[in-house]
Predict the 3D structure of the following.
Amino acid sequence: MNITPIRIELTQQERTELEMRTRSQTMAHRDVLRARIILLLADGQSLSSITRQVGKTRKIVRKWGGRFVKKRLEGLCDKAGRGRIPLFSPGRRDPSDQARMRAA
């Protein structure tokens, strides 16, 4: 078994929080997956083993492991500004915009 270069030591509070996230039925799947990756890294599993268990690439496992090392639990949240920029505001009531959206 190859040992991962990412070394994570969790506090009891962090481990409890991450375990809670992995058992959550209401949390977003991506957040559950990130918590699981960190727990597996903290347990000393290899990158190859983790990638097989979670179904993600080594690059993704390293990304979340590195972010956790730098920012701890806060590092597991998406960065601000991620995602598609909205094309229109749902609160706006301009009928011409609504017509264009239906025609598209």
